[in-house]
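Dear Dr. H.,

I hope your travels went smoothly. While you were away I took the liberty of generating a structure for the chain from your last submission, since the lab meeting agenda had it listed for discussion. I wanted you to have the full record in hand beforehand rather than looking at slides cold. The sequence, exactly as received, is reproduced here:
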Amino acid sequence: MMFLSRIIILCFALLPTATYSLTLKNPKSRGLFSQKEGGEARIKFNWKMKSKGDYFLEFSLDDKFQRVLVSKKIASLPYIWKTDITGHVWWRVSLFDKNKKLLERSKIRRFTIAPPAPSVDLSEIGGYFFEWDTIQKPEYFRFKVSKKRNFEPSLIKKDLKKKSYSLSKLEPGTYYWKVAAKYNRQIPLVYSKVRTLVVKKGITEKVLSVVERPKFKKVNLSTPKSPKSSRPIYKTLNETTSVKLSWGAVAKSSSYQLEVGERTDVISLKNYTFLKLGLGKYSWRVRAVSPGGGFGPWSERSNFEIKISKEKIDLESPKNKEINKDFEVDFEWKKNSQCSKYELIVSEFDDFSESVFSKKTEENSLSWDVEDEGQYFWYVKCLVNNKNILGSEVRELNVYE
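The corresponding predicted structure, in token form, is as follows:
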């Protein structure tokens, strides 16, 4: 019995030290941060530094850290990260010795970055006219009015598509109002600052902020990427395809407005955007927008065309709009003699602006372990010397228990 005890003690002594021993402090798990009007979020990071060595802070767009945004060596705390991305971000901290051997690692935490909250205004034209605006277009707005600052209870609570709301009359008193924007299922409601409205007999006092409107230089427009020509042609297998448009950045701008074909409602926080467009020829241009809402001059126009491709990769499974109850999904497609490799891409969005899974292979099949149930879209690229020459149709995949 004593001999067996010694064996057990020896086995525990040979086990590796605990991997997840670094203690994270801020930000808290599943925290929500909003971008400022300039389109940038500032997030403070802190953790317990208890050992000598090199600490590395990592940010990723997935919890497996296959799509790492930043991996940065941190010498002192707190660390402030400035970013213009939106959506879920996962982060962790790792400690290495001087020989780059991993000593310790923290658990993984997730936080969410939302677009700027709506900017609000109030005027009195034959009543009370509440107005607001956002840089990006949300699914809807939630408008609230209350006599209490905590909005419990709310006198008015409306979900609206438009950017305004009017009241013909308000009784004398102090009111508080705010507006929230709902962007997608990942991002919770993002509320504006609370505004105060004091109603007296014939007098309306309003609390407003004044923002300067800087002047802008002309935007330098670049032609859409790949293929490089004055009139690029995009080949697609569907009636619509995702096209990347990019241009030169403008200093002190908060966003950009695009005019693509007949559309003038396209807003981008970065100096590029992805648009889902149908077949045809397009002319487009762009201009900068200031934090206060002022516009710079339009750029010169550029042109491109979207055509149907005659060649394609034939998909086999899963079928389009198939409901899969198994969280391990097997993808298969027919081999094509032109392809040296294939790339499978899966996204939550049908324009593939962000992907949840992307992997290259020389075979005509791949498996994906799904983490969250929901609706997904997928397709396969054909690669020759790591360059995409053709692709498959886009299929919808639904994963539910």
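Two observations you may find useful: Residues 233-308 form a domain with the Immunoglobulin-like fold (CATH 2.60.40.10). The chain is about 5% helix and 50% strand.

With kind regards,
E. W.
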